Amino acid sequence: MQKMPQWADVVLIPLISLILAAVLSGLVILAIGENPITALTIMIDGAMGSKYAWGYTLYYATNFIFTGLAVSVAFHARMFNIGGEGQATLGGLGVALCCLYLPWPHWSLAILGAIVASAAFGAFWALIPAWLQAKRGSHIVITTIMFNFIAAALLNYLLVSVLKPVGSMEPATGKFPEPTHLPNFAEMLAPLGISFSRGAPANVSFIIAILACFAVWALIWKTRLGYEIRAFGHSESAAKYAGISPTKIILISMSISGALAGMMALNNVMGEAERLVLNATEGAGFIGIAVALMGRSHPLGIFLAALLFGVLYQGGAILSQDTSIPVQIVLVIQALVIMFTGALDNMVRMPLEKVFLAFNRSSAKPTTKPTAAE
Amino acid sequence: MDLLTLLQVLDATVRLSTPLLLACLAGLFSERAGIFDIGLEGKMLAAAFTAAAVAAMTGNVWIGLVAGIAASLLFSAIHGLASITFRGNQLISGVALNFLASGLTVLVAQAWFAQGGRTPSLQGAARFNPITLPFAESLSGVPILGPIYAELISGHTILVYVSLLVVPLTWWVLFRTRFGLRLRAVGENPAAVDTAGISVVGLRFAAVGICGVLCGIAGAYLSTGLQAGFVKDMTAGRGYIALAALIFAKWRPWYALTACLLFGFLQAIALRSDLIEAVIGFRIQIQLLDALPYILTVIILAGFVGKAIPPRAGGEPYVKER
Amino acid sequence: MTSPASGTAHPAIELRGISKAFGAVQANKDISIRVMPGTIHGIIGENGAGKSTLMSILYGFYKADAGEIFINGTKTLIPDSQAAIAAGIGMVFQHFKLVENFTVLENVVLGAEDSGLLRPSLARARRELKSLAEEYELNVDPDALIEDIGVGMQQRVEILKALYRKADILILDEPTGVLTPAEADQLFRILGRLKDEGKTIILITHKLREIMEITETVSVMRRGEMTATVKTAETSPPELAELMVGRKVLLRVDKKPATPGANVLEVRDLKVTDDKGVRRLKGISFDVRAGEILGIAGVAGNGQSELLEVLGGYEKASGTILLNGELIDLTGKHSDGQSRRHRGIAHVPEDRQREGLIMDYMAWENAIFGYHHEPEYQKSRLFMDNAAIREAAAAKMGRFDVRPPDPKLSAKNFSGGNQQKIVLAREIERNPDLLLIGQPTRGVDIGAIEFIHQQIVALRDQGKAILLVSVELDEILSLSDRIAVMFDGQIMGERLPGETDAKELGLLMAGMTGEAA
Known about the structure:
Chain A has helices spanning 6-31, 36-48, 51-76, 84-101, 107-136, 140-162, 185-189, 205-222, 224-234, 236-241, 246-273, 284-294, 299-322, 329-343, 345-362.
């Protein structure tokens, strides 16, 4: 007997969790002496109040779609991939090498090369912790976190000592050549007669992100590989019985996860900055965790959650400009979302189940049949 | 390299391994009771900020220490609530709390001190100052043993000595008391404890509480003993390194001491790359030195230094069997 | 043999009107029992009858919705385990509650320590254990680690735990599941001694034979209610079975004699070593022919599980296995579960919840579990044909009478028997040459048991080879055409069911060959 209907599980619980996170965030803002309602208004206006704002919101959302998809694919295999930051950093490295050292005639070709490079580098960075988990039982949570730190150190070294153009003081690569510049929304929509803010960074990788959503959806629910990944994620012992190789699943799911995280670099490194700098990822890998949890690891949910966090992120940036609330408020909201949707799931679920049970019981008679679960 | 330089490095090792040791022992209590705590980092950070902030405001580091411990206990309580009461995913709870600490500390620091997310520098009674052990000055002339006593053993802040005492204390509690027996049991087979009429929930919350206290001391030490104030994300991954040390130590107190000293040593020599060049003969890139603790963590986890079996019921919420 | 004094003696334990509901399900309804001191009382019922709930109430895990408990005539409240222990109730659980890497002594003392310091408590426990061992023949090595001692010994530790806490009433839940017949006999001797010393014993089991053997009175539970309480001497297994189920029950399977054909499976010198270096299979050899059921009898843990895992393709082994005359790959590229299935081996595993099904998958997803690569389930090279799979699953569920016949229901929402039918339907309908089955009716109610047994026999009659592994000797004896007994990774002997009995098989199961059999 189902304890509560499907829709309640998928929509109601995340919604209530979100509301709880929002209320607590409001209290935090209150506690540091600011008005939460004002803050909310500024955030919404700053994120959605103009095409320029949308240009930023969708730009950030694109990052979070990639990292959210990355975390979700690993989640389906029961792997908790916290290494999105490091994998996205390596993805950026791949994009940089691809754009700087290969002669591309046009961005449509450059982006293909960049997709391959970013995915490969990101996958590689996830593959080592995955291999260690599969073969040596090393806890993937700790190893991926360590690899985040190692990636930062590696990037630092490369930018300072290897990739920095001669004569420059800044730890960054040179600017990518013109043919690798991706069109932003303004350039994409102009041929259609729609005008869009030219300064906003949202670009064609947003389309790639949406395509990735469809691809992940098809992979997880429509293919044999997806069937196996989910089965393994539910029960390793059953997967072994069915002839599914745990090693194969861990390696493949983490590689796909790392590849998706790496592809985030298409947006921030290739699409916006057009060069590689330190800390290009700016925490997007971690926000991916919140996005995946809130979106219940489903691409549609992830898209919506990524949009929400895009609003939060851009709103937070404007908030820190216009008020004395630092941009770390977004970290707090992100933490609360992860907490409520991920760990305190039962705190919302259990009372809700009681509500549904009482509702069912008042419309049905109790039986003396033994429980179905036996 | 002469004796004095060696002692300086060892001295730094001890100072740097103290927060690791305290956090490691904190994690030991928690994990031995079956609660996986990846949030050591967040607790330390929260404690570091609160201790520094309160010490700055009151001018008294001891009040700061208590405040830091309180902050860490608050985070512990949330983790306990999520993991024990609501049987939630312990990894997600820990990760969330780390982010929460990272964000809240800067938020509050900015609101209270408006210095870009840090506390003011701590001076005088608002920080822990080195303690000179008796006769250190007069004995420093004695060859070899004198400098060791004067430079290495004497001259640390009090929390360093406290952390060293916590090691045998931990061992005694775990293996010589009734509480310790029950705590170890609840991490291996909570059903055995439950059917014996002891509260699984109570034991686990106690463990989580001890973890909170020790992390609180670790964090307070960071900002009031090792350094003189709080800066953003100052824990820099120490909470995770402590976890690696814990696995390396196979969840035993005395091995934990060795493991943390090793990591402390790595952090100490990263600050003296010139010495390394003098000893081995070639330069090691500074970024590689900085990354060494993290790389060693991975190597340990890869089991290249022996297999470690965690408490059997670790990470699993306890549900009464029907 | 003491008998209770005249009618003024109080029952050691009495329940009046105990009721407990979980949501809409009434697990216990108005249960009343009286057990006199110094007797052994049995409680029998099939899975889901409510026995476990009743015991949980007695031990303080659950609070009854209604009803009272009287210990020695005094009304007693049992809100938690501590109260139960204080009331003199000791429980020996089906799944032992022991800390594996503690010693026997530490396990006994856990929760019953004298004070905050450990060593004095351990010293006193050591002395006490010695005297208990002398009194009741419960010998154990106090410094042995639980993970190093055998199952029978572990059970003794559980009993000692209860006695150390001065229990007068001992409740044993399915105690013989993991014991050889010889070990079970030893347990019963110990229980007899305890009874003679005035202890009260309640034995919860689903095994009719045990009830008949050692209890004086027995209560039958069915669907949450106590349907009868009788004196054991005045009843019989068929009568008890009927009381358990509510109708006449076929205790033996109706089947024609087998007409076996050629060898389908040939196993020679099969050896398995687990990842701790322990040898689990020590070189076994046997055959299974077409149209026959070979039953592997034995207490759990003697290598049967490993045997199934090797044949099923998820455990490495050395030796030779031939299927229909051709070599099976044991360690290389084709040693996995998928290759086994391609070769025509189907497998109903021992643990359907941990292996046979993905509990969170829907019935239709489970209906192809293990066979998800088969071409008939694919729409194209990339995608699966989920609609076709759902249709096929619905049809399968109808043919095997799975209730409710809803392919979109998650596996965890089906009863044990229906879950097993889903697995069985999946494996049998692949038309395999060889069917492996482990514990086919564990946790399955009697109605489904009959159906499952019929399906197995039907498959045999189609000329397939069947390898049956079961710890239930009755099942082995009634289903098999030939029986092989395993002990300690070896086959101790083969017998024909008509020419042997539980006693002889029991000796083989305990590792004794060529003895007075």
